[in-house]
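Help!! Second protein's tokens look totally different from the first
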Amino acid sequence: MLYEIISSLLKKADPEFSHHLAIQFLKKNFLPLHIFVSKPSKILETSLFGKIFRSPVGIAAGFDKNAEVYNSIFKLGFGFAEVGTITPIAQPGNPKPRVFRLTEDKAIINRLGFPSVGMDEVYTRIHQNKPNGILGINIGPNKESTSKLDDYLKCFEKFCKLSDYICINISSPNTPNLRDLHEKSKIEELLKAIKAKQAELNNSTPIILKISPDITDNNISELSDILLDQKIDGIVLTNTTIGNRNDLRSKFKEEMGGLSGFPLQTTSNIIIQKFYKRLGNKIPIIGAGGVSDGKSAYEKIKSGASLVQLYTSFVYEGPYVANKINEELEDLLMKDGFQSLKEAVGADCI
């Protein structure tokens, strides 16, 4: 009851201030939220990147930007957490207001621009607070950087031995020219440089690429070939979109920034299916965009995702959303006769 009162107040406050309070709420453990969370069923367990994920549901980058509450997140039924995006040097991000809650559309528009305390501070936090679950670190360049490539390499070297995977974010719409890295020559240069750095460091941490939904079929074809050629370990499909505004009802629908949540669901599913049909089981997919319940998670898995991530539904549904998805997803898998989650991956692409 107390949480419901707090949650109601948070939803009425400024979105970014509410986010700050939510982080503090989890950080300080004001309420033992985890005591109401059930252990995920064995049917949801999956092996990926050399790790065992107890649940396929993860928290996406953007929620725990500065690596403050990942261990609290693990207690809520999430199988993994991705922190960031982390930049080499601390930066404030874009001017406020920069986050807009589109309640009627179950969506959020943000133009945060990678606010970050910087890689040194985040490294210290994680080093001093060892993860109790699978932790991914999402990295990106500083807004004023003269070399995005150097920024990625700095962050990769800093975190590659501290995380279970590194996610390279080339797809935020809120950092100038970042999405240019989807171009064939630029993404090849970036991935070759990171793989070379990985070899130099004698490191084997999985490398994952986070991709925009605002791409063409030709982009998908080119990217698929490059991902296979460079032996990238996984991809996140997808980041936020700058499109999908026509059917929105909120007064904030024309705000600049990336749109996340329910309106992105179908778009991301289509992108997942297109990549899965080209990649098959060679490169695992983490599905993101509109995951809010067991049904939406199941649709992403059947579209080709081995894992899923959420962020916006944590805002609207609250801290028990992963637990709810786990329970509903188990029922859906069993209803369709699947003995494991792995059997359902790509079922709609056959």
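Here's the second one for comparison:
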Amino acid sequence: MARITAGVATSHVPAIGAALDLGKSREDYWRPVFAGYEWAKEWIAKSPPDVVVLVYNDHASAFSLEIIPTFAIGCAERFAPADEGFGPRPVPVVEGHPDLAWHIAQSTILDEFDMTIINKMDVDHGLTVPMSLMFGQTDAWPVKVVPIAVNVVQYPPPTGNRCYALGEAIARAVESFPEDLDVQVWGTGGMSHQLQGPRAGLINREFDNAFLDRLTSDPDALRRLPHIEYLREAGSEGIELVMWLIMRGALGRSVRELHRFYHVPASNTAVGHIVLEPVAK
């Protein structure tokens, strides 16, 4: 049977992808950002999963204001890098795992989650930047991916509690899949940042680090965090952090923190990263 072996959370700042693609990762500004992922790159290379269930948000690449699914799952065999206005990123095509994706879709829908099934979808920096951070520059990604896109762009986004519960439902789906697979669940986006308005450039180190603490020790408190608190404390784009709760919900009640990294700034954003391992009951 399939099993969830770890959870990863990371920011997906588009400028990080550009820095890597343009050969700027060793520049003084960017070196500390990429250094924060060296532990995770070595860790995952030693024991890569078979599949990553990667939770991210689309940035008007696959979806538009005409169609806004709250939760969508990619069930295709492959997903091309999206053209976000400057051409697609020079990264490999993302290989899907249709059998597991369809199983998760069926299981979560019958578990009373309204998942939108996507059979053709390009994926933008929300998905490809985390892949680059964890696997570096490569000719082919070493894992298959089941993309799960979450609406955190157009109000109303799902609550943290609903996202956590979806993570629990994904765990039930994975555990009922008959193939022998090691699966990781990744939550991406955040941390505190605001891209527009009078508070553009907002970064809240205290909130971000408290969120990282509670992700391990008190996820129930994060489940109850209302939208207005994300907006007030973490900026308008800080709501992306609810996607980390899908990852956390998939790991079960008890986890062990393996690695943590936090850095300010990368572009106009706080970068957060954590690796968690479920603790056997």
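Reply: Different proteins will give different token patterns, so don't panic. Strands lie at 3-10, 51-56, 71-74, 78-79, 94-95, 116-118, 144-150, 182-188, 255-266, 269-278.
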